[in-house]
Specification:
The chain has helices at residues 11-14, 22-27, 60-67, 77-80, 87-97, 130-136, 138-151, 160-171, 176-202, 208-224, 266-271, and strands at 47-49, 55-57, 236-239, 256-258, 284-287. The protein has 2 domains: 11-67, no CATH class; 78-287, no CATH class. It contains 11 helices and 5 strands, in the order ααββααααααααββαβ. The longest helix has 27 residues, at 176-202. The strands form 2 sheets. The protein has a 3-stranded antiparallel beta sheet with strand order 4-3-5. Strands 1-2 form a two-stranded antiparallel sheet. It is mainly α and 290 residues long. The radius of gyration is 29 Å and the shape is elongated. Helices cover 40% and strands 6% of the residues.
Length: 290
């Protein structure tokens, strides 16, 4: 026995006492504030005390939500994470938005003297950096210009911060045009980074045209798995022969039908975001209800 109880004592053994042993109170002054447990016939449940003091049924997700690091909410969240995103593309885009990709210009901190090592592997004209790679490089600029023409993104700039600043306000809208724009933009970033790494580590090269075809083939395949709601005023939008992908990714001439919703037209989507439409592109075919 030790202080009135054995080392094997259970909660039930002490639940009948009216107060803690005086020797306990003398040795542990905090015991005076601890209530004596009561025993009932109900089954015990594991409960988790949230950071706000509330009790909840235990779950791993709830524990993680309590202990995870927290930062300020970023305005570009919807550009990266959305329900129709391609996960591996979204993860790379998340790194890109924070400019955390390991481009060669980071070697300057190590005092690398050979300037050729720092050159962009795509154009071999300028130093490899985040701003150059997206989309000031002649190679990536061509790919992005093709993408802009295809999906009618009304912007002239190829500078990273200006592009993301333009897309951020409209990214929160869950309409088919915005979804397509985000899929194409994020896929462009992913495939350009992939091509850059392939040239460095695998000595493999793709032309700008081939890379763009691969980007658009991937987007088409993703769109095939998305179900869009119908919308009054516009029947269907078809992505037709603006890009004819090669290889096994998608058969040439495949079409993806998209149902518009939440707005009456693509013009409505952009006008509500303060942007304008450049109609000089035949990539989309609209058919209005009679």
């Amino acid at each position: 026995m030790s202080l009135g109880f054995s080392i094997n004592a259970t909660v039930a053994d002490i639940s009948h006492i009216a107060s803690w042993p005086s020797s306990w109170n003398h040795k542990y002054s905090s015991m005076a504030t601890v209530a004596i447990p009561t025993v009932h016939d109900n089954l015990d449940h594991i409960r988790w005390k949230h950071i706000d003091g509330s009790l909840h049924d235990f779950s791993v997700s709830l524990v993680w939500d309590c202990i995870r690091p927290r930062s300020n909410i970023v305005v570009w969240f919807s550009v990266v994470w959305f329900s129709q995103c391609i996960p591996r593309h979204a993860f790379l885009m998340w790194l890109s938005m924070g400019e955390r990709l390991k481009t060669k210009d980071r070697l300057k901190a190590w005092e690398v003297s050979n300037g050729s090592i720092l050159l962009c592997p795509l154009c071999k004209c300028c130093d490899d950096s985040h701003s150059h790679l997206f989309f000031e490089c002649t190679y990536s600029c061509y790919v992005w210009d093709r993408a802009k023409q295809l999906i009618r993104i009304p912007m002239d700039s190829n500078k990273w911060h200006e592009i993301t600043s333009t897309l951020t306000p409209i990214a929160v809208r869950n309409v088919s045009f915005v979804i397509v724009v985000k899929l194409v933009f994020v896929a462009s970033v992913y495939f350009i980074w992939q091509e850059r790494n392939n040239r460095i580590f695998k000595k493999a090269h793709r032309t700008e045209v081939k890379l763009f075809d691969d980007i658009f083939s991937m987007v088409r395949l993703k769109l095939l798995s998305i179900r869009f709601k119908s919308l009054k005023g516009v029947d269907v939008m078809k992505i037709i022969g603006a890009c004819k992908p090669q290889g096994p990714m998608l058969k040439e001439g495949a079409e993806v039908a998209l149902k518009w919703h939440q707005c009456d037209s693509m013009t409505d989507v952009m006008d509500k975001s303060g942007l304008s439409i450049t109609p000089s592109c035949n990539a989309f075919d609209f058919q209005a209800h009679p």
